Amino acid sequence: MILKCMPALILLVSVIFMSLHSSVFGQTSPANDVLRKRARAIHEKVIALDTHIDFSPAHLTGERNYTERLDTQFNLPNMIDGGLAGLFFSIFVPQTRESQNAEAFAAAGYERAYKLAVEKFDAVQRFAREIAPDKIELALNSTDARRIHARGKKFALMGVENGYPIGNDIARVKEFYERGARYLSLTHNGHNQLADSHTGERDGWKWNGLSPFGKQVVAEMNRLGIMVDVSHASKEAMMQIAGLSKAPIIASHSAVRALCDVSRNMDDEQLLALKKTGGVIQVVAYDGFVKTSKPDSSERAAALAAARKDFNLPETVGPGQRARFQASVKKLSAKQRAEYEKKLADIDKQHPGDAPANLKDFVDHIDYAVKLLGIDHVGISSDFDGGGGVVGWNDASETFNVTLELVRRGYAEEQIEKLWGGNLLRVMDEVQRIAREMLK
Ligand SMILES: [Zn+2]
């Protein structure tokens, strides 16, 4: 989940348009057909695992839930269409910034967060056990993931985004592990009781890295076999975690700062420190971290808003709105869509905007990380339903496009297998093996 202002959202209309018409990725020619066939064969063989997808409990347990094609980026029909094998559901809990709420770092704030975390754990468990047990199953380690995949079912794992709901109670780390958590990021946006967040680059620091309790939590995660996730942490906190952790660490959804200079991304020094632990960066397909687009001119923004109104399309003001908008465009009749397409082309001509982040921009981040770290330390994540927004991979049904672009760039099957989850599953096993060793 990413809560931040997103200038690139204004460009969403053209994103959706390009996505729907596959004008960038869907050209047909004999050479492309051969490539597509090869990519298809590889995609069917590898285990495609996305390490960060947000959800609301209602989407898992409500009357209308992820077994249907909801207006969300992720749902089971989309997952099946895109050939996505497994995912980490994000047990995300927001927090109120300390300055805005006196309860934020007191028992009442922690309790509220803890209850929400439990509600999310329970929703995933219920979805897998009661609502769609014939389609998806919970995995707790890589053996589970491979076994479930081999039986033709989807697998779900869980990762906690934000250690805030731990409160000051170290026992909750074990409780979260027992509820199924296999990674946990100490922070989200805003400092908490465990560590500084990347947002300190704007707001200043609280701990200059980890708090004393945050250090204990890292040790406890090592002891239990939970992967320490450094996405959202400040650079200093991340470097301290890399130094402290006895097991490989991960960034469950971050991109490369050298290509897109935002505080949520990782610079080369951080990436090399992560590699030194044996860990992996799961490069995220979130448009604002893939490419820093210039905001639209007021004329362009007004023209796009008017077009949306003409076609009865919803506003596009936040991450949760993206999928709803995309679904609304898909529901237009062919004639309406053609008219809408023409309207957008006119707007592009009259008031050109910066091109939105696309699949090629995204795979540039993968290429960069692979060149810097080697093929064993890079993976893939979407941040669907908390972000996403990359043209070409903007919902789970488009997952094959990532493999196609990797094949186009010359990646071999065994490399793609590592990127699409092989590396992450290796790290998860290693973290659990180290935990068992520590018990002896
Ligand atoms: Zn996030």
Structural overview:
It is a single chain. By secondary structure, the protein is of the alpha/beta class. It is 49% helix and 10% strand. It contains 18 helices and 9 strands. The chain has helices at 12-21, 30-45, 57-61, 76-82, 107-131, 142-150, 171-179, 200-203, 212-224, 235-244, 268-276, 287-290, 298-310, 319-331, 334-350, 359-373, 400-408, 413-439; strands at residues 49-53, 86-92, 136-138, 154-161, 181-185, 227-229, 250-254, 280-284, 378-381. Strands 1, 2, 3, 4, 5 and 6 form a 6-stranded parallel beta sheet that branches. Strands 7-8-9 form a 3-stranded parallel beta sheet. It is globular, with a radius of gyration of 21 Å. Residues 2-24 have low confidence and may be disordered. Bound molecules: zinc ion. The site of zinc ion has 6 residues, from loops.
Q: End-to-end span in angstroms?
A: 37 Å
Query: How many extended strands?
Result: 9
Secondary structure class reads: alpha/beta
Q: Spell the H/E element sequence.
A: HHEHHEHEHEHEHHEHEHEHHHHHEHH
The general outline is globular
Low-confidence stretches: 2-24
| Bound molecule types | zinc ion
On the 0 to 100 scale, the average pLDDT is: 91
Number of helices, where a helix is a run of at least 4 consecutive DSSP H or I residues: 18
Give the biggest beta sheet: 6 strands, parallel
Strand content of the residues, in percent? 5-15%
**Measured on Cα atoms, how large is the radius of gyration?**
21 Å
Percent of residues in helices: 40-55%
